[in-house]
# Entry
Amino acid sequence: MGWPDRLRRFLGVAAPLRPPGALDEPAFAARCIRCGRCAEVCPHHALRPAGPAFGPDAGTPLVVAREAPCALCMRCPPVCPTGALAAVKDPRAVRMGTARVDAARCYAYQGIVCRTCLDACPLQGEAIAQDDELRPVVSDRCVGCGLCERRCPAPLAAIVVEPRGRR
# Structure
């Protein structure tokens, strides 16, 4: 069940950013029964069902970080009836994806002082730091919540979360 990455790329359908605790994509897509319980308990409305463009994955939960990132409240995994979302006790253990900085869009790379992504990061200094020229540097501790992407002031986000497995 679910689309293989090769087919997804061929069709131009972006890989989905899954909720905290999501199993690897094939296992997640096979186990998720599209009940919507995770989206119902999300106080930040970060989870939404994948649309028809996702083919067999339609109805599975995903996060659109630029619109509504995950606040890492961890309310979704406990309500999953199938185990498609595994329990996560520490938000630092979440592995939704990793943020990537596009230097051509990033204000800090253009010489404009900006630390919006650093200030938005819930892991304060662990996932995003600054280099000697005050530009953002994302570490392997990034959990992929998308708070940085949402808060980026650039018209086209200069920092974008790539879903787990697509790095």
